[in-house]
UniProtKB/TrEMBL annotation:
PANTHER family, A to Z: NCK-ASSOCIATED PROTEIN 1 (PTHR12093), NCK-ASSOCIATED PROTEIN 1-LIKE (PTHR12093:SF9)
Organism: Sphaeramia orbicularis (orbiculate cardinalfish)
Protein name, as recorded: NCK associated protein 1 like
Region (Disordered): 614-640
Domain of life: Eukaryota
InterPro entries to which the protein is assigned, alphabetical: Nck-associated_protein-1
GO BP, sorted A to Z: cell migration; cell projection assembly; cortical actin cytoskeleton organization; neuron projection morphogenesis
Length: 1099
């Protein structure tokens, strides 16, 4: 190369300055946003004390004398660096009289135009920073105060800020000398831009992007000329180039410039400066040309172009998006079926992605700044999800089959491109030595490639080759170059194709980023969310909704090393979209479940009474239905259809579910800002929350009226929901079993993971507040024969039937619903009530302690016992409280018994372990085994939960001896109070229930279990003290036999049965012990007496 072009290093400078210029542009935009946002604005600019100083600086800038402190000065200094180097490079290019043509030196021309637009964008953005003078001026004052002198760069920077207050006029003056080079470069787009900017009708007629339009050429490599390569250039970038604002003089002297300029002005209203900063190109052009003489025709052209945009542009871009949706879908389906075509047709993929990217960005840009139009619907796209979806799908396909593309292009480079390049070099009549060295190195590099390198996953890097080609373009584009590139179009074409092929081998990710990067949506959150909302309302778009959160994965690409703080790590948009999709899906799933639950409810046995009644009277003449009476449909009638085309509500919900579940097929997971996002987990989370709410709602608990659903009904509903939920697995890969287990396990706890009430809490509250409270008042009776509670016959209608909530099937359903954990919680609450009653009993014992001590010491002296009993107070209260304890323990025993089916395979070993224990065993070991056994639903001699509750009652104020004394006296109190039960008319024994009408038969359970628990805690002999109790109780009850008053002996036989029940339920007492102190003949006569009044009916 000539010494001038080589020594100037034009290629290197263009590359570096473009990268640095983009960084400065992003930094300037970030400063503008920071100063404009009240939340991010520097505190010194908002300080009321600083307001006068800031006004003074803005007024006197740049000649100020002030002391302060500020940041971002260095960012403004970068402007001087950029300005100096850009103008130096532009002057060098003009001095070298460089040749620009996009068809020949593609990269050189593109970099040149990019540099000009980037520099211009930096200056425009700078002019939009309102606080720039305050920022720079205050920093300089702080520098002067700290260092004793002004910053050396401040005068020039201050002057620059003043000059660029009105940037366009200054820029046009500075670019005047460069008009020739800029115009030449722009005019080279006259063959590229029109073909890149065709309406959808011409795309459709040319069958653009279609692989099926010419099946015979499907395996042929795509034509990769300069026009095709230019498809990677952002359309908006081309329009920024063609603004002609910096070389406006050519508009009056070149007809071609004028035509190209008008075409660009007809493409849209706004151009992107950077991020979400836009430029109203028509307004800016009109304002600028109004200030020049002789441009009245151009101003008229601008107005005409603007009207054309307002009338036609929205519809044109809408049609383009419509075409691209179909074309991309076809392209994806073909390539998915035959991924081998990705090799020869890779260019089609990148063209499709580039066109789609440009349409997305155009719509976003204009939606945010939409003018007042007669057809605003052209700027609204409720099918954007589909376009984004296929963009994501095509990218995924390229990444998945990257090795196919690599393998194809490595062979192409080695076996075709290298040979063509070599032939082209051989046919060149002039080839200087250094150019020859570069070209020969290209050939040798490509010739050594082999498929084995791809198979061995060897890392291939052609960045050096591409940089050399850019250098060669610069060397051959200067005036009087020994090897002028414009004389060798074949060389330019071959090298441009080779450059594309090398990128297919080593820069797939960069190519995908360059052609389909839509991270700018990060800066348009409102528009992005609006697009999602519009798409989610369309039934046909629901299957594509996952593309929106997937696009958020691109946001990590929009950061820049020069401004890392610009893009904060946040997942708000991504999470919002996934939450909305999950919410819609979970709503549909649970609606289907609710419908199935209703259908399942119709099949429950409780609804068959009418059918049974009709069957019993089927021989009778069928009564004529009353006029207007609607016949009740039988279950299954909803499945009978006369016309299959009529869609039911369930059909519509299943269709919607299919569409929504299809969107989860886009990806199983993706990464956003180093966070791995799994879409199905959002769905499971929503389902978990909603299902928990539904289960609690199905319990139908009303605290005011104390109503609640039967456990069996709730269990049937949950089973119906679970069965329907499992059908979700046939749509998408989700672990429904894990979901259901998680929800149901949480329902066994007092509160769920969100702190809400569970069915465990609801049923516990209802049992305590309603069932057991009424049982304590004898409105509900414990019925041992039927193992349930039943309502007493009263004048008022009961709020619920107790047997419907407490029989064996209902308690088993309850145990299945709330599980061992829930029953443990219920048990703990029951124990709290029991210990409350025991505390009250101890208070009564203490009040009557002297009398009880004497009675215990004189138990064998009937006369003294009779006189002492008259001094005893509160006997009825003691028995009432013990009865309440007995009722609670009876219910607890029934509830725990329903756990036996919970772990069938462990019951045998647990029973063996329980039965293996001996009375001599260590009490701690015994209680541990009993705890295990009771958790499995087995009955134990000593209730470990009650032992724990009683032990926790003891305080430091009372000693073990005092507690022991109270326990002994409590048994005495109960024993001597038993005869008073005969006075209660409700103390009669009912054979049907197997108990007494006032629940005093529960005293047997209470006495046995409370005594066992108290004496276990006090480490005393349980049997001995129960024997003592039996003796005193027998003696007291035998006194009833000597009483001849009918009032006292009315229920005497029923009360006698209590002794038999106490012994029968006690593991520590035997019939022999009872007979030694209470004649068996009295028990036999008592049973005969109470059964005599029972009438047997045979149905």
């Amino acid at each position: 190369p000539s010494p001038t072009s080589a020594s100037q290093k034009l290629a290197e400078k263009l590359t570096i300055l473009n990268e640095r210029g983009n960084g400065v542009l992003i930094r300037m935009n970030y400063i503008k946003k920071t100063c404009a946002d009240p939340k991010l604005r520097p505190s010194i600019l908002t300080d009321k004390v600083m307001e006068p100083a800031i006004k003074y600086i803005n007024k006197k800038f740049p000649n100020i004398d002030f002391r302060g402190n500020i940041v971002s000065y260095v960012s403004h200094l970068c402007l001087i660096f950029i300005q100096d180097h850009v103008y130096e490079l532009l002057n060098t290019i003009d001095a070298c009289q460089c040749f620009f043509d996009i068809a020949f030196n593609f990269d050189f021309t593109k970099n040149y135009l990019d540099l000009i637009t980037t520099y211009t964008s930096v200056i425009i953005t700078l002019s939009r920073i309102d606080d720039k003078k305050a920022l720079v001026g205050m920093f300089n004052c702080a520098h002067e105060m700290t260092n004793g002198s002004s910053d050396p760069s401040y005068p020039r920077l201050g002057q620059m800020l003043v000059e660029y207050d009105h940037p366009w006029k200054k820029l046009t003056e500075e670019f005047g000398p460069h008009t020739r080079s800029v115009t030449t470069a722009l005019l080279s787009l006259k063959m590229v831009y029109p073909r890149r900017n065709l309406p959808a009708e011409q795309w459709r007629s040319a069958q653009l992007l279609s692989l099926l339009s010419a099946p015979a050429t499907m395996l042929d490599p795509a034509c990769c000329d300069t026009v095709s390569l230019s498809s990677f250039i952002y359309l908006s970038h081309s329009e920024r180039w063609i603004g002609f604002l910096l070389c406006h003089s050519s508009l009056n002297s070149h007809q071609a410039s004028q035509e190209l300029w008008k075409m660009a002005l007809r493409s849209g209203l706004y151009l992107t400066l950077t991020r979400d900063e836009t430029l109203n190109i028509h307004k800016v052009s009109e304002d600028l040309f109004d200030s020049f003489k002789g441009y009245s025709k151009r101003v008229a052209d601008i107005k005409e172009c603007r009207e054309h945009v307002l009338v036609n542009c929205g519809a044109m871009h809408r049609e383009r998006r419509q075409f691209l949706r179909g074309a991309m879908k076809e392209l994806y389906k073909v390539l998915e079926d035959e991924p081998g075509l990705l090799g020869p047709k890779a260019l089609f993929v990148f063209m499709a992605l580039s066109f789609s990217r440009d349409e997305v960005l155009w719509l976003v840009r204009h939606s945010e700044n939409m003018p007042k139009l007669k057809t605003p619907e052209d700027y609204v796209d409720n099918q954007m999800a589909e376009l984004l979806f296929y963009m994501e799908k095509l990218q995924g396909l390229m990444r998945k089959f990257n090795h196919v593309v690599q393998r194809y292009h490595v062979q192409y480079l080695a076996q075709f491109d290298a040979l063509v390049l070599n032939d082209t070099i051989q046919n060149m009549y002039v080839c200087p030595e250094e150019e020859s060295v570069l070209l020969s190195s290209f050939v040798s590099t490509l010739s050594t490639l082999s498929v084995k390198q791809v198979e061995d996953k060897e890392e291939l890097d052609f960045r050096g080759l591409r940089m050399d080609w850019l250098r060669l373009q610069a060397y051959t584009s200067v005036n009087k170059a020994p090897l002028p590139i414009k004389d060798y179009p074949d060389l330019a074409k071959v090298m441009n194709v080779i450059q594309f092929h090398t990128k297919m081998v080593d820069s797939m990710e960069e190519m995908l980023l360059e052609s389909s990067e839509v991270s700018i949506l990060c800066f348009y959150p409102r528009v992005f969310e609006k697009m999602f909302s519009q798409s989610s309302e369309e039934m046909t778009m629901k299957r594509y909704l996952m593309s929106f959160p997937c696009v958020c994965a691109h946001f990590t690409q929009c950061g820049h090393p020069h401004c890392p703080e610009e893009v904060s790590v946040h997942l708000r948009l991504c999470v919002t979209f996934l939450e909305q999709i999950a919410k819609q899906t979970s709503n549909v799933v649970l609606e289907i479940c609710a419908e199935q639950c209703n259908l399942n409810d119709q099949l429950l046995p409780k609804h068959c009474a009418e059918s049974i009644s009709a069957a019993r009277h089927r021989k009778q003449k069928k009564p004529v239905p009353k006029k207007g009476e609607v016949q009740k449909e039988k279950p299954g009638a909803e499945s009978l259809r006369k016309d299959r085309t009529v869609a039911t509500n369930v059909d519509k919900m299943h269709l919607m579910l299919t569409e929504l579940c299809s969107t989860y097929s886009l990806c199983t997971d993706f990464i956003v800002f180093d966070h791995i996002v799994v879409p199905t987990e959002f769905l499971l989370s929503h389902l978990e929350t909603r299902l928990a709410e539904i289960i609690v709602r199905m319990a139908n608990y009303n605290q005011t009226t104390q109503e609640i659903a039967r456990p069996s009904d709730l269990l049937a509903g949950i089973r119906a929901y679970t069965a329907s939920l499992h059908s979700l697995s046939s749509y998408i890969s989700v672990d429904v079993t894990r979901l259901v287990k998680s929800v149901l396990l949480q329902q066994t706890q007092p509160l769920d993971s969100r702190g809400g009430q569970t069915i465990t809490t609801l049923y516990t509250n209802w049992i305590l507040e309603s069932l057991l409270r009424q049982a304590s008042n004898s409105l509900i009776v414990h019925c041992p024969t039927m193992h349930c509670f039943v309502n007493q016959t009263t004048d008022t209608e009961p709020s619920f039937r107790a047997e419907e909530f407490s029989d064996v099937s209902e308690l088993r359903a309850l145990a299945e619903l709330i599980g061992p954990y829930g029953l443990k919680f219920l048990s703990e609450n029951l124990m709290w009530h029991i210990t409350s009653q025991i505390s009250e009993l101890k208070k009564l014992v203490i009040e009557n302690m002297d009398v009880l001590v004497q009675m215990r010491n004189n138990s064998d002296k009937p006369e003294e016992m009779a006189s002492l009993k008259k001094r005893l107070t509160g006997g009825e209260n003691v028995l009432k409280r013990m009865t309440i304890i007995g009722v609670i323990l009876s219910f607890r025993s029934m509830a725990m018994d329903s756990l036996k089916d919970h772990c069938p395979y462990l019951m045998g070993p647990i029973e063996c372990l329980r039965d293996f224990l001996t009375p001599e065993a260590d009490i701690k070991v015994t209680l541990s085994v009993f705890d295990l056994a009771s958790s499995a639903g087995l009955a134990c001699e000593i209730d470990p939960a009650l032992v724990t509750a009683v032990a926790n009652m003891q305080t430091d104020n009372t000693s073990i001896d005092e507690e022991y004394k109270l326990s002994c006296l409590l048994l005495v109190y109960i024993a001597v109070s038993l005869p008073s039960l005969a006075l209660d008319p409700n103390s009669s024994y009912t054979r049907e229930h197997g108990g007494h009408n006032n629940n005093i038969h529960c005293l047997a359970t209470a006495i046995n279990q409370v005594a066992a628990a108290m004496f276990t805690v006090q480490n005393k002999n349980i049997m001995q003290h129960l024997k003592e109790f039996l003796l005193m109780a027998s003696s007291a009850l035998l006194q009833l036999g000597q009483n001849v008053e009918r009032v006292e002996i009315k229920n005497r036989e029923s009360v006698y049965l209590l002794l038999h029940m106490i012994v029968e339920e006690s593991p520590f007492l035997s019939q022999d012990m009872l007979e030694s102190c209470f004649p068996y003949v009295l028990l036999r006569n008592a049973y005969r007496e109470v059964y005599r009044s029972f009438i047997i009916t045979l149905g």
